[in-house]
Give the backbone structure.
Amino acid sequence: MLKVSKCSKLPMDRQPIEIVERKGKGHPDTITDGIMERVALELNKEYLRKFGGILHYNADKSLLAAGVTEPQFGGGKVIEPMLIVFGDRATVSYAGESIDLEKVVVNAAKSWIRENLRFVNPDEHVRYQIELKQGSAELTDIFRRGSKIMGANDTSAAVGYAPLSRTERVVLELEKYLNSPEFKKEFEETGEDIKVMGSRHNNHLDLTIALAFVDRFVPSESEYFRSKQEVLDRVNSFLKERFANDFDGIDVHINTLDVEGRGVHGVYLTVLGTSAEGGDSGQVGRGNGVNGVIPLMRPRSSEAAAGKNPISHVGKIYNAYTHEIARKIVEEVEEVQEVYVWLLSRIGKPINEPALAAAEVYTEANFEDIKGQIEEIIASELDNIGEFVNRLIDGMVPVY
């Protein structure tokens, strides 16, 4: 069933209140999403290499338990390592052949950590616990039915939208800048654990940034506050250069829990650049959406995409594909100012035949003039879902 309707609600940019969050790559939730998605990609490769096709797995019920550290000005120490628990289901053997699941999973996690967290040694600072068990017979059998287009593994719904609002763009681009090689080269004392919270009231934007500092580069409390001011100045320069014309004003606050005169207890200081080392744990699905932000004022999919199987798990496929379809509608139908796209699966039915595909469109043009074009785009994208799945398998679609 395909339904396209007109939306009466104003686009997000024209609504009076908006709240948007983004968690950087060193945030415990993003670390967990990133590692589990890397696990998924490596399992895809191993299944294809060993069996010629992807078998049943989901590695999305996973978590990161914080370790214990003792930050100090000039350099602290790690007392207990972090723990990553890999949970849910994975096929280990098929037709007399098997894979070394633990090796694949741990190597995937270590490679992601090395690529994204400068100060975390995956051999010393992290422990790994594998709790991936064999899946249920009926769900596992979906992968043995020989269908070109897989049946959905669940009855589930997802929603995506386009375009990003200006607040969403600021929050997204600012965190990426703060974690960019360019910024880290100049401010090596800043860690990867960054969270940006944006709050817009009419045309004024307020940004609160949590930014971990790495203790080995901070010799004293006074140096911490000096560096923090320099970072604030650089952030304001970045925002002025990129977004000055988008808002009447932008206020920025960094590490607002800080209190001068309390030493290491009054500043956001870490040993490894992430609060996961000793302050905060992480879990798949608590981080960014597939478009990179957490939009508090919009409908969101209830399922995480990271770590899920890319050929039958609609919690991954539809979660990402609804955003891609929405972007295509906005790109191809210039009269559309904002669009939401929903896909609802029915377990066992082919993923290209959702029980419901729906779009809600805001336009100031004649809706009937563009309705048919939007229906054609959605129908065409569903016909081509196999190509999208292949890109998911290869890791060509961002999902966290």
In short: The longest strand covers residues 190-201. The radius of gyration is 23 Å. DSSP finds nine helices and 19 strands in the chain. Residues 12-24+165-283 form a domain with the GMP Synthetase; Chain A, domain 3 fold (CATH 3.30.300.340).
